[in-house]
Amino acid sequence: MKRMIPMAICYDFDGTLAPGNMQEYGFVKKLHMAPSDFWETANGLARDQKGDEILTYMKVMIDESCRRGLSVRREDFQSYGKDIQFFEGVEDYFARINRYAKAKGVKLKHYIISSGLREILEGTSIAHEFAEMFASSFLYDKNGNAVWPAMALNFTSKTQYIYRINKGCLDVTDIEGVNRHVAKECKPVPLTNILYIGDGNTDIPCMAMLNKAGGHTMAVYKDGQKERAASLNRDGRAHMVAHADYREGKKIDLFVKAVIDKIAADGRLKQITCQK
After folding, report:
1. What are the pLDDT digits (tens) for 123-133?
2. 1 pLDDT band (50/70/90 cuts)?
3. pLDDT at position 159
4. Does the structure show a pLDDT above 50 at 89?
5. Nearest to residue 201, comparing CAs of 161, 246, 156, 153?
6. Where does residue 50 rank: exposed (0-12), middle (13-18), buried (19+ CB within 10 A)?
7. 110 touches 17 (CB < 8 A)
8. What is the pLDDT, as a whole number, of residue 276?
9. What is the rounded average pLDDT for all residues in the chain?
10. What is the DSSP pairing of strand 240-243 with strand 216-221?
11. First CA to last CA distance, the chain
């Protein structure tokens, strides 16, 4: 019997699966702030205090909510995820790609690796499509109110989660496991069998790491923003550039299927050559 070949697709979220930033759909609107004002407040705090922009946007989320008397419970953040609108084809894409992979003998799993908020992601209509969603998140007090960052993923720390998938160490609290030496042939998902899809500068370390390891990368863009994604391709960061359209027959669909084909063929060749 042929063994199913493991594969993972990792996605950034903001600008990759959905236009804009996830905080702007429900949360910022409820603050009655312009998105530009929210981000200037958060990024200005990072500049003034020499802080991390992910940590400062999380602080501003709590500060501005408290200033307006808004609840900051997990379920409040989850409710904002229901407002998120996706790029064309996203909601149908996962089932279609899963069927294609299965037909090719590939055991495919999807992952989010995002600097956005896990709690908002949990409220989206596609949350169930992912084996795990690695993202920033809050700590909550005994009354269920957000009080402090629990996790903060920035452009460099994102690479940790590629290695977690590679080693099958998905528990973010397991520091020993992710750093433990594991023989290359014993890792559940080879780096060569991972595809990373992103849209901008925060994705460069993940792309660079996977490219060096023989993995696969793609940069997507929305209307009017092709240059940023194209620069990732010119600089050798992304193998492919595609308009953020996930419908069948479009460039993303075709590229993902081609990567599945390659991983399936390489996996079968390896199985044959390893037979005694």
Report:
1. 999 999 999 99
2. very low
3. 95
4. yes
5. 156
6. exposed
7. no
8. 61
9. 94
10. parallel
11. 15
Angle at 161 between CA 157 and CA 165, to 5 degrees: 165
Is residue 189 within 8 A of residue 6, CB to CB? The reply is yes
Per-residue model confidence as pLDDT tens digits over 128-160: 999 999 999 999 999 999 999 999 999 999 999
Q: Where are the domains of the chain?
A: 5-19+86-273, 23-81
DSSP secondary structure letters along 21-67? -GGGTTHHHHHT--HHHHHHHHHHHHHHHT--HHHHHHHHHHHHHHH
- Cβ neighbours of 258 (radius 10 Å): 12
Alpha-carbon span 195 to 181, nearest angstrom: 23
Within a 13 Å sphere around the CA of 211, how many CA atoms are in the beta-carbon half?
18
Q: Checking DSSP bridges between strand 194-198 and strand 106-117, what pairing results, if any?
A: unpaired
Average pLDDT over residues 170-186: 88
- C-alpha 4/C-alpha 151 separation (Å) is 33
Query: Distance between CA 236 and CA 240 in Å, rounded?
Result: 10
Q: What single DSSP character describes residue 270?
A: H
DSSP 159-191: HHHHHHHHHT---TT-HHHHHS---GGG-SS-G
CATH 3.40.50.1000 fits 5-19+86-273, yes or no: yes
89 strand-pairing partners: none
219 pLDDT more than 70: yes
